[in-house]
Amino acid sequence: MQKRLACLVMFSVTIVAAALYDSGKALATEAEGYKSTSLAQGRFREIDVTSRFQGGQEAAGDKEARQLLQQTKGLSDVYVQSNTWAPGGSTGWHMHPGQSLVIVTDGTVTDYEGHDPECRPHVYTKGMSFVDPGGEHVHNLRNEGDVEARTIAVQFIPADAARRIDVADPVPSSLILFSLLPMSWISGTEKAALVSLIPGAL
Predict the structure, then answer these.
(1) Are residues 160 and 116 in the same domain?
(2) What stretches of the chain adopt beta strand conformation (E)?
(3) Whole-number Cα distances in Å, 151 to 34, 128, 156
(4) Pairing of strands 165-166, 48-53
(5) Does 70 score more than 70 pLDDT?
(6) Half-sphere exposure of residue 39, counting CA atoms within 13 Å on the CB side?
(7) What's this model's pTM, rounded to 2 decimal places?
(8) Residue 189: which domain range?
(9) Beta strands 108-113; 165-166: pairing state
(10) What is the tally of structural domains in the chain?
């Protein structure tokens, strides 16, 4: 059993290595059916603003004044972006070095987050909004509807940094491995052993 398991592991590593090597030419996933246009860009000095105000929508039992905090260190480039997706369009997997405030103005966009092993969809329709925290947050925004989708995004980016950074598809290599490895080859005992070697593989 140990010899067979070693062969399975070696075979699996070979598959993953081959897949990664083959994708090396295109590690960054490309956008398809998607266009982003800068409507405005400005450079801001350090921001340190605290605002308190009454009114607006209140949570149940919340009678306190609303508070808005905005703080940055160093210079920031602020972008206002108009984004458009054709039906089936995709931004490709990417991240931003700063946060984005996003408003859906037409259609529906579906957000997939790279850190989610289940790749669950987060659906936003016209009039809805969401925050992309930026930093190491990797995501892919898709238009899975049959009409054009549009958003407006306000992005806070460290001065002179790239506004967008394309990244590789974050699908776990173990998913690639086991989608290619015939399950009939693996006994129950070997599955347990492989899971101990590659957590979350099965």
Answers:
(1) yes
(2) 32-44, 48-53, 66-71, 76-90, 94-95, 100-106, 108-113, 122-125, 129-132, 139-142, 149-158, 165-166
(3) 11, 10, 16
(4) unpaired
(5) yes
(6) 10
(7) 0.68
(8) 1-27+168-202
(9) unpaired
(10) 2
